[in-house]
């Protein structure tokens, strides 16, 4: 273990640099940890290690009792072992593990971040808010994105998910902007049939509850609110709260009931199907569009990450269990 003059442990090997059959000797942050048993009943530890460049699965096969109380989630650890390939993915077999104090590491080296500056993204969000022509929808959007300092501060660093898509700092804002761009384009192509303002305000607010569904100071996980209520209901609660405040402060005299129902419907139905967590399926055209756009952007991001991180040689990835298929590595993903 090497220490810099500052007294911090030097991070000289990142997840992106791990290579099959090569030794691993570096600090990481534990994102996930569980004690499981193999088919013969022998215990082993299943871990996910992370740093700012990505994450990698890891296993501890020996001295499990010794490490079970140490290798816990949200802990910085020094790892010694070897990298191997398992089902086309990198995996670290850990031989030795040591707990590190928080003051021994440079925390920004361990937390994934978006490659996009959040400030221009948030400026783009505000342009969409300003583009709304319906006074009620615009007042609601402004109350969230222009007047609520908590929302402004949180949305610039919140991930969009724990692991599935845009699971990194500012990921929610990145996802939001892509959903807005695609929704705006579709609305421009179907002007006669789609209420652009309803679709845009739905895009703006569809995932707003994730600001409180997830905790993301370090390792992303679900909050108690997230586990018990979820971001769909949290989003609707915020909409109700903001509308009450707008009416009480006389910013608007009365928010029309139909508009309130429609925007809440878009939020509650954007997962599309009951089995995917939507209390209601989309029942208006704008809700259908929002569901498909949200689903499309999340899938593009998750598939892109899967192909990029795949370690299988050749033109095809390993089998993707979520999508039940192999993916072809087009020229966009081929490494030099």
CATH topology of the largest domain: Hypothetical protein af1432
Major beta sheet, specifics?
A: 5 strands, mixed, barrel
N-C termini distance: 32 Å
Outline = elongated
Order of helices and strands: EEEHEEHHHHHHEEHHHH
Secondary structure tally: strands: 7
SSE class: alpha+beta
Q: What is the domain tally?
A: 2
Taken as a percent bin, the fraction of beta residues is 15-25%
The CATH architecture of the largest domain can be given as Orthogonal Bundle
List low-pLDDT spans. Answer: none
- How are the strands of the largest sheet arranged? 1-2-3-5-4
Number of helices: 11
Helix content: 25-40%
**Rg calc:** 23 Å
Mean pLDDT over the residues: 90
CATH class of the largest domain: Mainly Alpha
What does this structure look like?
It is a single chain. The chain has 336 residues and is α+β, with helices and mostly antiparallel strands. It folds into 2 domains: 15-109, Beta Barrel (OB fold (Dihydrolipoamide Acetyltransferase, E2P)), CATH 2.40.50; 118-305, Orthogonal Bundle (Hypothetical protein af1432). Helices cover 39% and strands 17% of the residues. The protein has 11 helices and 7 strands. The strands form 2 sheets. The protein has a 5-stranded mixed barrel. The chain has a two-stranded antiparallel ribbon with strand order 6-7. Strand 1 and strand 2 (43-51) form a beta hairpin.
């Amino acid at each position: 273990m090497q220490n810099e003059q500052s007294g911090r442990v030097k991070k000289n090997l990142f997840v992106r640099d791990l290579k099959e059959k090569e030794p691993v000797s570096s600090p990481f942050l534990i994102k996930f940890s569980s004690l499981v048993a193999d088919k013969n009943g022998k215990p082993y530890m299943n871990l996910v290690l992370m740093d700012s460049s990505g994450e990698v699965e890891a296993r501890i096969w020996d001295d499990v009792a010794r490490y079970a109380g140490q290798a816990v989630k949200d802990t910085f650890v020094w790892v010694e072992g070897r990298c191997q390939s398992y089902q086309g993915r990198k995996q670290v077999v850990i031989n030795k593990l040591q707990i590190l104090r928080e003051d021994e590491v440079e925390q920004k080296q361990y937390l994934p971040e978006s490659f996009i500056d959040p400030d221009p993204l948030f400026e783009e969000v505000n342009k969409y808010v300003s583009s709304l022509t319906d006074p009620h929808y615009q007042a609601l959007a402004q109350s969230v994105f222009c007047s609520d300092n908590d929302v402004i501060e949180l949305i610039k660093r919140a991930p969009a998910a724990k692991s599935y898509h845009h699971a990194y700092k500012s990921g929610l804002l990145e996802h939001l902007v892509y959903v807005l761009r695609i929704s705006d384009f579709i609305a421009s192509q179907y002007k006669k049939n789609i209420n652009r303002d309803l679709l845009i305000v739905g895009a703006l607010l569809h995932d707003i509850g994730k600001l409180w569904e997830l905790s993301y100071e370090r390792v992303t996980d679900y909050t108690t609110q997230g586990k018990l209520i979820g971001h769909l209901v949290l989003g609707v609660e915020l909409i109700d709260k903001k509308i009450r405040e707008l009416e009480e402060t006389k910013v608007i005299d009365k928010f029309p009931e139909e508009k309130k129902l429609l925007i809440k419907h878009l939020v509650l139905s954007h997962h599309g199907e009951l089995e995917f967590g939507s209390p209601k399926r989309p029942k208006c055209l704008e809700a259908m569009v929002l569901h498909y756009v949200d689903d499309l952007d999340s899938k593009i991001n998750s598939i892109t990450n899967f192909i990029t991180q795949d370690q299988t040689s050749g033109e095809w990835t390993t089998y993707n269990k979520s999508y039940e298929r192999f993916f072809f590595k087009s020229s966009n993903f081929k490494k030099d």
